[in-house]
Amino acid sequence: MSLTAPHPTATGPGGGAVAHDAPPSAGRPAGRLRRGWLAAGVVAVVAAAVAGIALGPVDLPLPAVVRALLDRLPLVDLPSGLSDRDLAILWQLRVPRVVLGLLVGAMLATAGAGYQGVFRNPLADPYLLGIAAGAGVGATLAIVSGVPSGRWWIDPLPLAAFGGALAGVVATYALSRSVSGERSTVSLILAGVAVAAFFTAVQTFVQMRNIESIRSVYAWLFGRLATTGWNEVVLILPYVVVSSVVLLTHRRLLDVIGVGDREATALGVPVTRVRVVIVVAASLGTAAAVAVSGLIGFVGIIVPHTVRLLAGWSYRSVLPLSLLFGGAFMVLTDLIARLALAPAELPIGVVTAFLGAPFFVLVLRHRSAS
Amino acid sequence: MSGATADRTRHATHPVDGHADLAMTGVRVTYGDHTAVDDVTLRVPTGGWTALIGPNGAGKTSLLHAVSGAVRARGTVAVGGADLAGAHPRRRARHVALVPQRPVIPEAMTVFDYVLLGRTAHLTYLAVETAADLHVVTDVLDRLDLTAFTGRPVQALSGGEQQRVVLARALAQETPVLLLDEPTSGLDIGHRQHVLDLVDRLRRECELTVLAAMHDLTLAAQYADRLVLLDGGRVAADGDPADVLTRQRIADHFDAEVHVVTAPDGGLALIPARTTPADRG
Fold this sequence. Notes:
The complex is a heterodimer of chains A (370) and B (281).
Chain A: H1 35-54, H2 62-71, H3 84-119, H4 131-144, H5 156-180, H6 185-209, H7 214-221, H8 230-249, H9 251-257, H10 261-266, H11 271-293, H12 299-311, H13 315-339, H14 348-369
Chain B: H1 2-9, E1 22-31, E2 34-44, E3 49-53, H2 60-68, E4 74-79, E5 82-83, H3 89-93, E6 96-99, H4 111-116, H5 131-143, H6 159-172, E7 177-181, H7 189-206, E8 209-213, H8 217-223, E9 226-231, E10 234-239, H9 241-244, H10 247-254, E11 258-262, E12 268-272
Helix pairs in contact in B: 5-6
C-alpha cells in the first residue's frame, strides 16, 4: 500500500526547505501521518490477525500457526507439524475469516471517517446515517427477487446493496438539509434515525412477503463473518480496494473542507464534487461490507475517533490509521464474539454496539460541551 | 500546467505583475427571493485599496463572497483581464484570496497547517504539498511575525493573533487581489491599527489590490484611497473618502447623526453626535 506510506514531507520538509534552525514543531505541518503511528497500526493488524487465527474452539498452538503461515511465503520452508485437519481449519476457516474481518473493519472505519469529513459531523457513521440500512434493503430485494448470486467479479448482491446505500445517504442528507437548512450535527443524526427506521420497516415488510426466502435473508443479515470462506473475500476485495484508494487520496481535501463549504470554495476546492466522490466511494465500500457481513454498527465512529484522539485531527493520519486500526478492531471484536459465549457465537454487531453505544454518548457529550 | 509550476516556485515576497485590476460587471447575488447584491459594477485598480462601506445588510459580505467564488453570482468578475466567471474554484483562488469575517477554524489545527491551506489553489486535485509550498508558508509566517506561533493551535491564540493568521493564509495563496471582510471586527483600537497598517504595508510591498468591507468609517477613510458606499445591494456613492463621507449621506444611509471633522493629520474622522439630551437628571 504505497498510499499509507509516509509522504516525504511527513517527518519534515525535504531538501532543506526550511533554512533557519526551527524548533521541532516549527516550519513543518503538524497534521501529518507519523511513522510511529503507521508502525503501530501495522503491528496492531498483525497482532490481531495472529490472535484471530490462533484462537478458537479448536486449540491451535501459536508457534505451529506462525510456522504454517510463514511456510506459505515464497522461499520459506517451515514444516508446521499441524495435522491435515488443523491445516484445513487454519486455511479454510480461520484465515479467510480474519482476512474478511480486516477488510470489513478497515472499510467501515475508513468510510466512517470519510463521511465525518464531508459532512463535518463527528457522529457520522455508515450505520447511523441510514446507509447500512439502505444497503440492507437493497441486498434483501436482490435476494428475494431471486437474482442469482454468482461468484463472478460482478455479483448483483453488492451492487444492489450499493444502490440501497446511496438511496439511504441521499435521503438522510436531503432530509437533514430540508429540516435545518444549515448543517447541524443533531439534525443529520435524527434524519439518519428516521431513514434507518423506514428502511428497516421496508426490509421487514419485504421479508414477510417472501417468507420462503427469509432464511437466506437472515443468514445474510447476521453472522456472515461466521460462515465465510475465500469466496466472500474475493467478492468484496475489489470494492474495498477501490473505495479505500479513493478515500485515502482525498485526505488533504478533507482537511480543507474542514473550514466550511464557502471558505473551502474560496480556497480553490470544488466542494460539491469532492463531497459526491467521497460519499459514492464510502457508500460503495460500506455496501460491499454490509453485503458480506450484515449490519455492523459503530465501527465507523469508534475507530476514527480513537485515532483522532491519539494521532491528531488531520485526515492525513485519520484515514490511513482508521484503515489499519479498523481492520484490527474488527478482528478482535470478532474474537470476542466467538469466545464470549463459546461454543455459541454472538452476532458481531452485538459486540460493536455494546462497545459503540457508550462511545457514541461520550462523543455526543464532548461535542455538546465544546 | 507550466503556469502552476511558475506560481508554486515564485517566492512569496516577489511582487506580482502589475496587471492586477479587479473588475466586476453586473454582479448580482440572490438568496431565494432576497437580492443581496443588485447589479454592482466596480473597478479596483492595481495596488489600490477600495473600502466597501454601508449599513448592516447592505451586501458588502455578499459582494466579497461573490468575487471570491464562495457564493454563486451573476455577472462577471475579472482580474487583470482574465475572466473568472464560471472558472474552476482553483483558478479563481489563484487570483483572489478572501479573509472572512468569521473564519471557521477547525479544532486543534495548528498555525502552520492553517496557513498551509492557502496553498490549496496551487495544488492539483489529489496532489500533496511540495517543499516549495512549505517554504512559502514559512516565509509568510516570518513576515507576519507569526513564527513563534507555528506549532500552536489557532484557536488558542488571541483575536489579534488569529486575524494575522487568517491574513497569513490569504497571503500564502499568492494572489494579486486580497479581499478582506471586516478585518478589524472584534479587535481593540490598537490591534485595529496594527492589522490595517500590516495590510497597507503588504499592499505596497506586494502590489496587492485590496477590496475590504469596513465597518469603521473613520478607519476606512484613513486607510482606503477610495470608498464605495453600498446600500440595499446597490452602489449608492463611489469616490474619494472626502466626497463620500458627508454628514447628509451618513444620515441617509446609516440613519446616524455624525460630525465629519478633519483630523490634525489631514484625514477625515467621524464623531457620533448624541441625539438625546446628555443629562438625564
